[in-house]
Amino acid sequence: MIVDCGACSAQNFVSAERLAVRRNPPRCWECGRPLPIDAGDAAAGREALRETVRIDPESNGGTDGQ
Question: What percent of the chain has a predicted confidence (pLDDT) above 90?
Answer without folding.
Answer: 17
